[in-house]
Amino acid sequence: MAATNEEKRTRTNTFALAPKAEWKKVCLIELLDSAAAFVNIVTYHRRQAYFDDDQTRSDVWNAITKTEIRNRFQPVLGRAITDKMLDKCDEQWDAFFEQLDDYSDGEREDKPGVPGYWKDDGKRVLKACIRNDAYTVEWGEHSRIELALGSELKEKYGIPLNQRIRVPIKGNPQYDGHGGRLELVYDRSTESFTARQPVTFLHDTTRATDSSDEGCVAAVDVGANNFVAVTTTQGHQRVFHARPLFDRFHHYTERISELQSQLPEQTDSSRLVEKLYAKRTRQRNHAQDALVRHLARLFSGWGVEAVYVGKLDDVREKHWSATVNEKTDLFWAHGRFRRRMQTVLEGECGVSVEEQSEAGTSSQCPRCDEGTHVSRTGDVFQCGGCGFEGHSDVVGSENFLQSVVDGDVDFTGERPMARPVDSGQNGPERGHRKVPRLEWDDHCWRQRGHATKEEPTNRSTHEGNLASESGTA
């Protein structure tokens, strides 16, 4: 019997602001002009520090303090918009430094440009990012938006301190739900205001009950030796191999510990230690982000509508050790991975993502349900009851999927092309011998020696390029 469920979707509403009173139009323009000035001032100070050879990356971030910029603009923009504009500036510089590091490491061909000013033809680009608690939208006979302002603007335009500016809006919202960060832009050529509002909404869906359902469900088992193993209700399976990545991560960890032990007393860090920390994190994040994009392409091609991601809390409690802790918390960064999955799959692909416990999923045979006479050695799972032998993380993903959907799942569906990429490491796997294993080559996830639709030959590391590839297996 089908089970009713709710899933989250994120879409964008676009609508126009239509202030009838001239003073409201001027007030909004002044708000957006101040937001653009905010960005340009932060950008100026950070650019000056960046182009000064005597300055470090930390000096760039601290070129203008957050307290200083808040005190200057909060009276006009208000606290919520000021904080959101700070986030916007930090996002631009975060992206720049990440791309710059990729260029320095040879992972990017073109050198990225330093963040520029919000200007066009010598004039400021009138734009602001508004936090979701700094505005409200009401649709109806008299549709309107209410925006928070700073005390100086309110006083200047006669708005009571406990009220917001109210502006009529035009348009038909396609999506109704909880709004996210609003982007408001004024176009000088058309003298018009445009708002873009990301909306997260809930709707009823029918969870897949067996492999014959039209909707496809995927289970993503989070591992340590392998990043993830994936199984769907249509029989698709993949393993993403992570040992070389972890070995490199662990090497950086040991080197950092060695350097920290040599530091003078009461000194916590050094420029070299910070550089190694940043490089270790950057390499991990790059592989993880590419994995999420790869999964998004696969799920799109397979028609996946819902994804369940393994929750590691119970696993850590049962199998805690220093090595497991390093793999699951530091190297794997499970919380970041889950957030990236939600951002990309829910926000861009309309696929729901839910976290469920995967404890015990690798300790039971997926063929005979035997749990007493099973053993796991590395990647090899063996059942003494029925003689089944397979990949332990694939076993985990199969059992995990069975635990989150109703009815039996047929695991004899897709069994394409690939042999294990490294049989010496992965061992004999009679049950999962044809499940594709993918490895990270510092550019993308691919089967060793293969260039397939899902592992394209384009080796660009730019996330936009990865997202635009449409091929799927």
TrEMBL record:
Region (Disordered): 411-473
Any one GO molecular-function label of the UniProt entry: DNA binding
Keywords assigned: DNA recombination, DNA-binding, Transposition
Gene Ontology BP, a term: transposition
Domain Probable transposase IS891/IS1136/IS1341 per the UniProt entry, residue ranges: 210-315
A Pfam family that the UniProt record links to this protein: Cas12f1-like_TNB
InterPro entries for this protein: Cas12f1-like_TNB, Transposase
Biased composition (Basic and acidic residues): 436-462
Residue span(s) of domain Cas12f1-like TNB: 334-399
Stated family: In the C-terminal section; belongs to the transposase 35 family.
Protein name: Transposable element
